[in-house]
From TrEMBL:
Species assigned in the record: Monilinia vaccinii-corymbosi
Keyword Signal: no
Protein name: Chitinase
Molecular function GO terms recorded: chitin binding
Disulfide-linked positions: C51-C63, C56-C70, C74-C78
Segment forming the signal sequence: none
Length: 173
């Protein structure tokens, strides 16, 4: 028999173990959960629910992005490889180029990189990865003892090279 839940959703189970939604499947042969509704489509709660992020709603009422969902019998948003929006007047593609600087890279045996070695003219935003919040003093410090605290100053000095660069410190890791 099929489970009473699939992907966390209630389903209808047929005697042969197949799981389906709707009146076509939930008749005398149905063995459980006849009040179940599909995630999307004609057998959803309101009969017209669409999938989040405009993904495909399969013939069986499940959301997804593969041929199984977008192919034969698909109910809504049935485009396997959607094109990006064509409204170029509001498009801001590549208006932000965000980079991460890994602080431990100064100790790397291969491709050692300092913050100034980055392509700063190509970036709009740069994150320092990672800093640490000292639990005793609540001050921001390096994530490990091997990373010099002077790296913070070296990182902030990048503004002299590219004054428009937005600098951020990522806490954690």
């Amino acid at each position: 028999m099929c489970p009473k839940k699939i992907y966390g959703l209630l389903i209808n189970c047929l005697e042969n173990g197949n799981c389906r939604y709707g009146s076509v499947y939930c008749k005398a042969r149905c063995t459980s959960n006849c009040d179940a509704v599909a995630e999307c489509g004609k057998d959803s709660k309101d009969g017209k629910t669409t999938c989040p992020l405009n993904t495909c709603c399969s013939q069986f009422g499940f959301c997804g992005t593969t041929q199984d969902f977008c192919g034969n019998g698909c109910q809504t948003n049935c485009v396997l490889e959607p094109s990006p929006p064509s409204d170029s007047t509001t498009s801001k593609t590549l208006s932000k180029i965000i980079g991460y600087y890994e602080a431990w890279n100064t100790r790397s045996a291969c491709h050692k990189t300092s913050p100034a070695d980055l392509p700063l003219d190509a970036l709009t935003h740069l994150n320092y990865a990672f800093a640490y919040l000292d639990p005793d003093t609540f001050s921001i410090t390096t994530i490990d003892a091997a990373t010099s605290i002077s790296l913070f100053e070296e990182f902030s000095n990048l503004k002299t090279i590219n004054p428009n660069l937005k600098l951020f410190v990522s806490i954690g890791g």
